Each structure stands twice: as structure tokens, then as C-alpha cells.
């Protein structure tokens, strides 16, 4: 019984989110539509409460719960706190958009919280079943959220595509896990690592299992050659949902990659390094080249995501603490940039108008110099130009890859970064050098404007003083993986 | 005051940036006059704080002075480390001085988004001073890249009809080179565990690694200088840029490349620098001779001056790679002098363009009849550009040619042809634009320069003649530093094997 109390303490944040999500569903039944802001408040409160609990139960060490199914370590805590923060920002950005499209409903907030619960379980999963459970909870919520705007055929199409391909990827991941279970006789991440060291690295079934696991992970990240769903889903989904899909779930995907590859399958590092290398290079090349040809901003950002994932894999494939810490830094920077980028689309959208064409940004500097400046910072950050956070993100992963001996890959990635700079510059060109075609004023709630400004300025400020975030990433990786 | 004395370089960097931010916040097109005055005050103060760098400079010391160091990103051992030596001090002063000129030159000319225009130049000025004074590779890189952003916007927003093409070309060209330099820094970081420039100077590196490092740096700096054959972005950027943009590009941005050769490429990889010396000299001579011939056939005045800049920068790289004190000092003098002369030339074109909205030589003729005062200045600067003795244009070129004679007669011979070609293209342009009968009614309606334009041109004229007659203030700064530099360059960095002086390899 004492043990159970201890276990409960470890999952307090998860329990909070679960209970509140159900509570919100319940409250929504009894509340008048004009009072829905209460639901919004409850959702934000949930995130805050979860953050408080996560912060209070944090330990520098590693503690396990539920017979090793669940782990509470500093990596998990940091990722969860970042997830809350990202989700909270996302809720601020999407409120007005949801209202204008008649999607400001209780289910939306419940579903977002459930998907976040899925992410939290993924982040803390120490057993392949826990990880899979969290992943499915997240994925199912996302599939239905993409189709949330029922009358929009594009969204339904995107949801269908996402669901079919996502189910396939989950199947692959599960298949790989079953092979690994077959060889090692365990589902527990730490035990798997020990078992593989005993079996030896050259077991064909293990390698097959690894291939399927890596394929499943790559799908969730959207790395080439498993990227097909990304542009369609990004473009088809309502922008508020694209913002969700593109941002915080990457933390969870990063966490399960660390758990599976860097902890469980670490003895097979030599094998998955090669796989990640190929995917990383392909992602950077195909992502950047395809982004040039896009005219839809959401689709362009989708391809830009693919190339960012390529850079992220550069850190992971280094397969050392330096590399993992740098990719954690990269993913944090990436989520911040994505939030700002899609936040800007939401800011410019209004009832009956989606600002998702590149041309919708034309002359933004004349319409609103401040908004244009925020987008300018975001674009230069995505391109990796100092003094923005994007530069340090690229710098850290590239130096890690260089240290791990991937010299030519680094040079190639750098060359592709120049290609990438082109399409980000094109956005700046549209905003600053072209005359506006749409002169309607920008209306947005004051809290959204404030948070968006803070978000974009953070890209610059963390760029000037990256030390705090870098230390946080380094420390959480070191204490959790050693 | 003590705080100021210990952090002169920080003030020199951050004051203009702060002034730029203030201008952005306070300024607007409705309050154009306030915007201009705030910008001017900011630029003048920023210039004044750089003066102690000259007055407080200790001539006999060849290493870094005014040093500041603070930990910035401990995770990667990156420091906020600044310092200046004889190479950087004149360039820092040139930068802050040119910014004042640019602000005055834009006074009535720029009417669209004036606050953003002024702020861009002020911020750029701070960033470029940062490049000239950073002694930590990442700090340097941040300044180096960050200055692309305001320049990109300046050309793109206030530029000519083909500005988008020009500015994107400028950005991508420079970015490509810079990123390869970043790779070189990453390599050096994993060798030394730090980004400190002094650690890189002391690091022994094998010949093959030095060659790769030098190539990576070359890609970054050659684009910036620009050397033949990676110069093609410059004429486009110059032609499309507004006058202020052209002035900053020619007077300072090109010097970033030259300075960086002295600060990074050559001392970090001295053996590779000797190895590539003949290649570099050949490329410089091609720039000097071939680009001068290209300049001869230009129909657009700005394009002509742009090509003339490339040709003159050829002298700078030529001076560097002969590894003699005279050549080196000549090259730096040439950089400073070119900063004045090219600014002046671009400002002259700006004066004409503001009145006629054309840069085509064919649209002019007989300007001297309607604008006599202006024509006097323009002819003086044209003479300086073609290297007339008594102007600063002569000093640097002459020093480099003298050094070249010692180095190899034929190199000197080819370099000296510039005195003919330079005179040919500059004076021919002057003849067609200023002399002869009044070409058309537009020229007949021209009004001579106003007080504002007079002040700018007169200041530059004084400097051009002043340094032409008495270049000692610049050369005195350089002596100790260049001696120190050459001593460093004579020592091989190749580990063990032999202690043969690098020059004999």
C-alpha cells in the first residue's frame, strides 16, 4: 500500500490532466455556449496545475513507478514542462480562431488535454507497452482533431490520410517491438538493453525489430522516407490543429526516441546510426528542396519541418550525450519557432479567411510593422541566422555530428541550409519588399498579441543568451541517461 | 568614466545598436524630422565613443588592446571577448564615421519608412564594429551573419527596380561562404576545446587540415571582398542598393572580408596561406586588370564604381599575400582610403541620381555648367580613385606596388597597369558626365549641391587629401601590429617534423 502511494505521487501530473479532461467534458454539458470561456480557463488551469505538480515532484535522480513501467526523471520533467508551456501558448493562439469557425467547444479542450496525457505517458514510458499506449492515445486524439471541422472536406481527407498512414506506422512500431520482445524476453527498456548486450549485436531478428521501430519513429517525426503525410495533413487540417500537430508532440516523439534508441537499443547504436544518417540527409535535402516550390504557407512550413527533423536526427545519430543534449536543444528551439510561425498565420486569419497563402503575407510591414518584425525574427531563426535561437540549434547539432565523425554529412547539411535560407528569405521579401494586396486591419485579442510577441522575442533573446536553455538540456540528458 | 574606459569596444558596438532601437521606437514617417535628428545624434555619439580607440592606442604594442572578456556560453566555452589591434582600430573608426555620413546623406532623400532606414544603418554599424573587434570565433560569427539581415532589408526595401534579385543573391552568396567558415570553426573547436582566437593562433595544425581550413575561410572572405570569380553579387547589389547601402557596402562591408583574412584565415593557417599565396596573387591580379577592363565598358555609373571597387580590393589581397611589411601596410591603407573614396563616389552618384533619377552615363553631359561646385568635388574624387599622387588613393596603391616590385617585377608591372586603366575608366566617365556641352534639358535644370551635401563631400575631400599628403596617422597604427603579424606568419604551425620557416615550403 505504501508502494502504491509512492507510485501515485509519481503520476500526479498525469492523474490531474486525466481527471480535469473528464471534468471538462462533464462541465461542458451543463454550460451555456456563451460561457465557454470557463472551459478555456479550466484547460489553462489544468496545464498550470500539472506544471506545479511536475515541478514539485521533480528529482534530480531517476525514480520508477508501477513496477518499472513508468519513469520519473529530469529529462521527463523538463520535456513535460516544455509540453505544458507549448500547449498553453497554443491554447492562447487558437482561442479566437476556434471561436470564429464554430469550433470553440468543450470537446476540443478535452481532446487537447487527452492528447497531452498521451504525450506525458510517452515521455515517461519505461516499458514498450506504456510507450505504445501513450502513442496511441496521442494519435487517436490527433486523428479526430484533424477532422474536428466536420464540414471541411479537405480536413476530412487529411484526417483519413493521417489515420491510415498513422495506423500503419503504429503497426510497424508494434511489430518491431514484438520482435525485440521475442529476442530479449522483456518489454522493459532497461532490461532490454542488458539483454541485448548478452545476446550480442549481430542478431538478425533484433536488427529487423530495430528497423521496424526506427521506421515507426520516423513516421511519427515525419522524417523522409516516411514524410508523405506531413504536407497534406499540415495543409488540410485547421490551422489551430496544425499548430498542435507541428509543435508539442515532437517533444513526446523525441522522448520515445531517446527511451527506445538511446536507452533500450543503445547496444545497437552502430546500426541505427546509419539508418538515422540516411534519413537525416534525405530529410534535409527533400524537405528544403520541396519547400522552395510551395505557394501555401502551411505546406511550406510542413516541408520546413521535415528539414528541421533532419537536423534533429543529426544530433540523435551522434549517439552520445553531447548529441542527445544538442537535439533536445534543437527540438525546444524548433517548437518555439513553429509556435511563432503558425501563431502568425492564426493572427492574420479572420472569419472566413485563412491567411495560409504565401501571398497573404504581402506587404505585412506596411499593415503592421510589429507583426512583420515578429515574423522576420521567426523566419531568420528557422533559417538559422544568428543572433537567433535557430543558429545555436543548428550549431549544436552540427558540432555534435562533427564530433561523432559525420564530417561530410555536416558539410552537406550546411549546403542545404543555404537552400533553406532561400524560402525563408522569400517570406521576408513578401512582407517587406512587396506592396500589400489586403489592407484589412489585424484584429486579435490582446493576450494573443502579447504572447506571440513574447514568443518571437524569446527566439531573439534566447539567441543572445542561450546559456540557460543549453544548460537545462545538457543537465537533464546527463542526469537521466548516465 | 572608469566603466567607459574599460569597455570602450562594448560601447562602440552597443551604442549604435541601442540608438537604432530607439529610432525604431520613437521614429515614424509623420515625425520624420525628429527621427532624423535622433538618428544623427545617435550616430554622432557612436562616432565620438570610438575616438578614444585612436587617442588611447599604444603604438608600440602589436597585440590586442582594449580587451574585454566575459563568459558567454560556458557549455561551449564561448566568451564575449573583444579586443582591437592596429588592423581593427582604423576600420572601427571608418565604420562609425561612415555611419554619420550615411545618416546625413539620407536626410531628405529617404522618405519611405525613414525610421527603419536609419535604424538599419545604426544597427549595422554596431554589428560591423563587432566583427572588427570580436576575438571569439562564435561571437565574431554572430556579428558577421547578423549584419546580413539589415543589409538584406536595406537593399530590398529602399533599392532600385531589380532589388529583390540583387538582395537575395547578396544574402545567399554570403551565407554560403559563411556556413563553410562555421564548419571550420567547429573543426577548430573540437581540436582546441575553445573558440578563443588566441588558442587557434597557437594550435599546431597539419598541412592538409590547414589547406581545408584555408579553403573554408577563403569561401567566406573571398565572397565578401569580393575576389574574382565570386564577385558577381557586388555589381548587382551596388546598382540596386540605395546610396547609403552602396556606401556602407563599399566602404565597410568589403573590408570585413579583407580584415578577416588578416584576423582568421592567414594566422590560423599560415602554412596554407603560403601554399596558396601564388593562387591568391593571381586572383588579385585578375581582379586588378580584368575587372578594370570590365569597368571600362560600363554604361551605369554605379556599376562602374562597383567594378572599380573590386579592382581596388584586388590591391588589398595582393598586399596581404606578398608577406612583406610594406605590402601589408599598403593593403590596410588601401582599405581605409578606398573606404573614403568609394563612399565619396557613391555619394556623388547619389547626388546626381536624386536630381535626375538616372544612373546612366549617357543621360548626362556638361553637368559642370550647371553644378560647378559639385563638379569640382566629383573630379577630385575621380582623380583620387584613379590614384593621383597627393590623394589617399595613391598612398596604398603605391606602397603595394613598391612591395610587389621587390616580390616579383611582373606582378608589379601588372598591378601598376591599374594606374592606367583606373585613370581610363574613371576619367572617361568624368568626361562624359561632367564635361562637354549640356546634353539635354534635364541637365540644364540641375541645381548645385546644398549645404548638407556640401558638408559631406567637403569632409570626405579633406580626408582624401589629408591622408594623401600625410598618411602617418594610419601607418603609425599599423607598424607594431603588422610586424607582429609577419613574425607569426613566418613560423610554421605544422606539428613536429621540421622547423623550416614556413616561407620556404
| Element pattern of chain A in H and E | HHHEEHHHHHHHHHHHHHHHHHH
- Class of secondary structure makeup of chain B: mainly alpha
Helical content of chain A (DSSP H or I, runs of 4+): over 70%
Helix content of chain B: over 70%
The total of helices of chain B stands at 23
Order of helices and strands of chain B: HHHEEHHHHHHHHHHHHHHHHHHHH
- Mean pLDDT value of chain A: 89
Q: Outline of chain A, from the CA principal axes?
A: globular
Please describe the biggest sheet of chain A, giving its number of strands, its sense, and whether it closes into a barrel: 2 strands, antiparallel
Keywords:
heterodimer; A: mainly alpha; 21 helices; 2 strands; B: 505 residues; mainly alpha; 23 helices
Characterization of this structure:
The complex is a heterodimer of chains A (482) and B (505). With 482 residues, chain A is mainly alpha-helical. Helix content of chain A is 78%, strand content 1%. In chain A, helix 18 (389-403) runs antiparallel to helix 19 (407-433). Chain A is globular and about 70 Å long. The termini of chain B are far apart. In chain B, strand 1 and strand 2 (78-84) form a beta hairpin. Chain B has a two-stranded antiparallel sheet with strand order 1-2. Chain B has helices spanning 2-6, 8-26, 32-55, 88-105, 114-133, 137-146, 148-158, 163-192, 197-202, 207-224, 233-240, 243-268, 270-275, 277-296, 301-320, 325-356, 367-370, 372-385, 392-407, 409-434, 441-444, 451-469, 472-490, and strands at residues 65-73, 78-84. The chains are: A mainly alpha (482), B mainly alpha (505). The A-B interface holds A 365, 369, 380, 385-387, 391, 395-396, 398-399, 402-403, 410-411, 414-415, 417-418, 421-422, 425-426, 428-429, 432-433, 466-467, 470-471, 474 and B 72-76, 113, 116, 138, 141-142, 145-146, 148-149, 152-153, 156-157, 163-164, 167-168, 171-172, 175-176, 179-180, 182-183, 186-187, 189-190.
Amino acid at each position: 500500500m505504501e508502494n502504491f502511494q509512492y507510485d501515485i505521487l509519481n503520476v500526479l501530473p498525469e492523474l490531474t490532466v486525466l481527471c480535469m479532461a473528464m471534468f471538462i467534458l462533464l462541465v461542458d454539458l451543463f454550460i451555456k455556449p456563451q460561457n465557454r470561456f470557463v472551459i478555456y480557463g479550466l484547460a489553462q488551469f489544468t496545464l498550470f496545475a500539472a506544471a506545479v505538480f511536475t515541478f514539485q515532484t521533480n528529482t534530480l535522480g531517476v525514480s520508477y513507478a508501477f513496477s518499472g513501467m513508468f519513469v520519473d526523471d529530469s529529462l521527463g520533467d523538463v520535456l513535460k514542462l516544455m509540453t505544458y508551456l507549448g500547449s498553453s501558448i497554443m491554447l492562447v493562439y487558437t482561442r479566437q480562431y476556434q471561436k470564429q469557425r464554430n469550433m470553440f467547444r468543450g470537446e476540443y479542450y478535452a481532446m487537447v488535454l487527452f492528447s497531452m496525457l498521451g504525450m506525458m505517458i510517452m515521455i515517461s514510458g519505461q516499458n514498450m507497452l506504456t510507450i505504445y499506449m501513450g502513442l496511441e492515445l496521442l494519435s487517436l486524439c490527433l486523428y479526430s482533431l484533424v477532422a474536428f471541422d466536420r464540414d471541411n472536406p479537405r480536413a476530412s481527407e487529411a484526417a483519413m490520410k493521417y489515420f491510415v498512414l498513422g495506423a500503419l506506422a503504429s503497426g510497424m512500431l508494434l511489430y518491431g517491438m514484438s520482435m525485440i520482445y521475442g529476442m530479449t524476453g522483456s518489454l522493459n527498456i532497461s532490461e532490454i538493453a542488458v539483454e541485448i548486450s548478452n545476446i550480442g549485436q549481430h542478431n538478425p531478428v533484433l536488427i529487423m525489430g530495430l528497423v521496424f521501430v526506427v521506421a515507426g519513429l520516423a513516421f511519427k517525426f515525419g522524417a523522409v522516407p516516411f514524410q508523405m503525410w506531413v504536407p497534406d495533413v499540415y495543409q488540410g487540417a485547421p490551422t489551430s490543429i496544425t499548430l498542435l500537430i507541428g509543435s508539442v508532440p515532437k517533444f513526446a516523439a523525441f522522448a520515445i526516441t531517446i527511451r527506445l534508441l538511446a536507452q533500450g537499443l543503445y547496444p545497437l547504436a552502430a546500426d541505427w546510426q546509419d539508418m538515422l544518417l540516411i534519413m537525416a540527409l534525405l530529410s534535409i535535402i527533400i524537405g528544403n528542396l520541396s519547400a522552395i516550390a510551395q505557394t501555401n504557407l502551411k505546406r511550406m512550413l510542413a516541408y520546413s519541418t521535415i528539414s528541421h527533423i533532419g537536423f534533429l536526427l543529426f544530433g540523435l545519430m551522434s549517439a552520445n550525450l553531447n548529441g542527445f543534449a544538442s537535439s533536445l536543444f534543437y527540438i525546444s528551439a524548433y517548437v518555439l519557432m513553429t509556435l511563432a510561425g503558425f501563431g502568425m498565420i492564426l493572427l492574420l486569419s479572420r472569419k472566413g479567411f485563412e491567411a495560409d497563402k504565401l501571398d497573404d503575407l504581402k506587404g505585412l510591414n506596411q499593415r503592421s510593422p510589429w507583426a512583420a518584425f515578429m515574423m522576420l525574427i521567426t523566419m531568420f531563426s528557422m533559417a538559422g541566422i544568428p543572433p537567433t535561437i535557430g543558429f545555436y540549434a543548428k550549431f549544436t547539432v552540427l558540432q555534435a555530428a562533427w564530433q561523432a565523425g559525420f564530417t561530410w554529412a555536416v558539410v552537406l547539411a550546411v549546403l542545404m541550409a543555404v537552400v533553406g535560407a532561400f524560402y525563408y528569405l522569400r517570406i521576408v521579401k513578401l512582407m517587406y519588399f512587396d506592396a500589400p494586396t489586403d489592407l484589412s486591419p489585424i484584429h486579435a485579442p490582446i493576450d494573443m498579441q502579447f504572447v506571440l510577441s513574447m514568443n518571437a522575442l524569446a527566439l531573439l533573446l534566447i539567441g543572445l543568451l542561450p546559456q540557460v536553455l543549453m544548460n537545462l538540456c545538457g543537465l537533464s540528458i546527463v542526469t537521466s541517461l548516465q | 568614466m572608469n566603466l567607459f574606459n574599460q569597455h570602450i569596444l562594448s560601447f562602440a558596438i552597443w551604442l549604435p545598436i541601442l540608438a537604432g532601437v530607439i529610432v525604431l521606437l520613437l521614429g515614424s514617417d509623420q515625425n520624420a524630422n525628429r527621427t532624423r535628428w535622433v538618428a544623427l545624434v545617435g550616430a554622432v555619439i557612436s562616432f565620438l565613443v570610438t575616438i578614444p580607440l585612436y587617442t588611447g592606442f599604444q603604438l608600440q604594442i602589436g597585440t590586442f588592446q582594449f580587451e574585454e572578456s566575459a563568459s558567454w556560453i560556458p557549455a561551449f566555452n564561448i566568451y564575449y571577448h573583444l579586443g582591437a589591434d592596429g588592423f581593427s582600430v582604423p576600420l572601427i573608426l571608418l565604420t562609425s564615421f561612415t555611419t554619420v555620413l550615411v545618416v546625413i546623406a539620407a536626410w531628405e532623400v529617404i522618405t519611405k519608412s525613414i525610421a527603419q532606414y536609419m535604424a538599419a544603418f545604426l544597427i549595422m554599424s554596431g554589428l560591423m564594429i563587432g566583427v572588427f573587434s570580436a576575438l571569439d570565433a562564435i561571437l565574431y560569427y554572430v556579428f558577421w551573419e547578423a549584419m546580413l539581415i539589415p543589409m538584406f532589408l536595406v537593399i530590398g526595401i529602399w533599392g532600385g527596380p531589380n532589388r529583390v534579385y540583387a538582395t537575395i543573391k547578396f544574402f545567399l552568396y554570403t551565407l554560403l561562404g559563411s556556413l563553410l567558415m562555421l564548419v571550420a570553426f567547429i573543426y577548430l573547436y573540437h581540436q582546441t576545446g575553445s573558440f578563443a582566437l588566441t588558442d587557434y593562433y597557437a594550435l599546431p595544425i597539419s598541412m592538409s587540415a590547414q589547406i581545408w581550413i584555408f579553403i573554408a575561410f577563403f569561401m567566406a572572405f573571398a565572397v565578401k571582398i569580393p575576389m574574382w570569380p565570386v564577385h558577381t553579387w557586388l555589381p548587382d547589389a551596388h546598382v540596386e542598393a540605395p546610396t547609403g547601402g552602396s556606401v556602407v557596402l563599399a566602404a565597410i562591408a568589403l573590408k570585413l572580408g579583407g580584415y578577416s583574412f588578416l584576423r582568421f584565415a592567414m594566422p590560423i593557417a599560415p602554412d596554407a596561406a603560403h601554399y596558396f599565396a601564388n593562387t591568391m596573387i593571381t586572383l588579385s591580379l585578375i581582379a586588378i586588370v580584368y575587372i578594370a577592363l570590365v569597368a571600362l565598358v560600363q554604361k551605369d555609373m554605379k556599376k562602374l564604381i562597383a567594378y572599380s571597387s573590386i579592382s581596388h580590393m584586388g590591391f588589398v589581397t595582393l598586399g596581404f599575400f606578398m608577406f612583406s611589411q610594406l605590402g601589408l601596410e599598403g593593403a590596410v591603407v588601401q582599405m581605409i582610403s578606398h573606404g573614403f573614396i568609394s563612399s565619396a563616389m557613391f555619394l556623388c552618384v547619389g547626388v546626381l541620381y536624386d536630381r535626375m533619377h538616372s544612373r546612366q552615363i549617357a543621360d548626362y553631359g556638361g553637368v559642370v555648367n550647371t553644378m560647378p561646385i559639385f563638379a569640382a568635388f566629383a573630379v577630385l574624387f575621380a582623380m583620387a580613385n584613379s590614384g593621383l599622387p597627393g590623394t589617399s588613393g595613391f598612398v596604398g596603391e603605391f606602397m603595394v606596388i613598391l612591395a610587389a616590385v621587390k616580390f616579383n617585377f611582373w606582378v608589379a608591372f601588372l598591378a601598376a597597369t591599374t594606374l592606367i586603366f583606373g585613370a581610363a575608366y574613371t576619367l572617361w566617365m568624368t568626361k562624359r558626365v561632367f564635361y562637354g556641352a549640356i546634353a539635354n534639358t534635364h541637365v540644364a535644370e540641375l541645381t548645385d549641391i546644398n549645404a548638407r551635401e556640401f558638408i559631406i563631400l567637403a569632409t570626405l575631400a579633406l580626408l582624401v587629401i589629408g591622408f594623401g599628403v600625410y598618411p602617418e596617422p594610419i601607418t603609425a597604427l599599423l607598424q607594431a601590429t603588422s610586424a607582429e603579424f609577419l613574425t607569426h606568419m613566418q613560423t610554421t604551425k605544422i606539428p613536429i617534423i621540421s622547423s623550416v620557416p614556413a616561407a620556404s615550403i
